Amino acid sequence: MLRLPQFEVVAPESVADVVTALQRPGARVIAGGTDILPNLKHHLGTPQHPAELPPVLVSLSRVTALRGVALDEAAGVLRIGAGVTLSQLSEHPEVQRRFPSLSQSAGAVASPPIRNMGTIGGNVNLDTRCRYVNQTHFWREALGGGCLKSEGNVCHVVPGGRNCVAAMSSDNVPVLISLDATIVQAGPEGVRELPIEEFYKADGLAHTNAKPGEVTTELRVPLPKGPRRSHYIKWSVRKSIDFPLVSVALRFDLGEDEATVAAVKVVVGVLGSKPRTLSKLDDVVGKKFGDPAVARMVSDAAYAQCKPLENVPYEAAYRRDMIRVYTRRAIEALAASAE
């Protein structure tokens, strides 16, 4: 049996009080607890020495200001509170109508019980994962002293590597990046908003640009200004529970004829510590969306630009092949649905 370590829980009722509570040594945010509690059971992110203070979990369960989805037409955005559960997000009619890829990604996370507990704020702050880290403490000790992310100083994915390459496995982050969403952070220095694409960095030990004592309060997704086709697809071993081994978020903005590609943004996840936005897709612009060349060009670009590592199960070369396959399948499915 994996037991939780000793910790203290505080439950503020306002964002300001959450920020104050996070100033305590060892304080960490807990929302649904679907990520942090398993990590605590595996002794990840817990004090390494008995003399250290037990962790303090700052619960967001009583902060009602973080709940709710609101259409802000004046600002041209959909405002999503960080405390909205993944089930609520997936089933929200405005999300389903305006952002189907976000509804798909939220509805693809794990299982119904986890989606009923997990929040979108927690999902965008999901800790990075690695096949050599997300194991029991006993397993990591048997490996020979852990790794860069847990108790050790070596990387088992990149021998001799000095940077942690644990993977960002969130279903929703690639989609939010593809939709040009912004994230709102509240902390001791006040409230700031930044593009969610800039919130992540290539460091598996500290993969977000959150400042000390900050908490995510809201996500803002710009409303489409014209016809659009968007989709999210992932490959995992099982159809539920499992984290994605490959994930692709697609967004095609169309011209007034609703058939010609005016802009395209494709984001691939589960590579390293942040998703990758594909570049060099200009040749797709101007083509008919249903043209088979579109699926071929985008899937070939995804294969060429994305090189998975051995940081999650299944061989990196096979996962790279699946990036091409799943990207093509998603575009073909989108094109067929538009006919």
Automatic annotation (TrEMBL):
Keyword hit for Zinc: no
Keywords, alphabetical: FAD, Flavoprotein, Oxidoreductase
UniProt keyword annotation of Oxidoreductase present: yes
Domain FAD-binding PCMH-type: residue ranges: 2-226
Signal sequence bounds: none
Transmembrane segments: none
Domain of life from the UniProt record: Bacteria
SUPFAM superfamilies in the record: CO dehydrogenase flavoprotein C-terminal domain-like, FAD-binding/transporter-associated domain-like
Alphabetical list of PANTHER family matching this protein: XANTHINE DEHYDROGENASE SUBUNIT C-RELATED
Name of this chain's protein: FAD binding domain-containing protein
Organism annotation: Nannocystis punicea
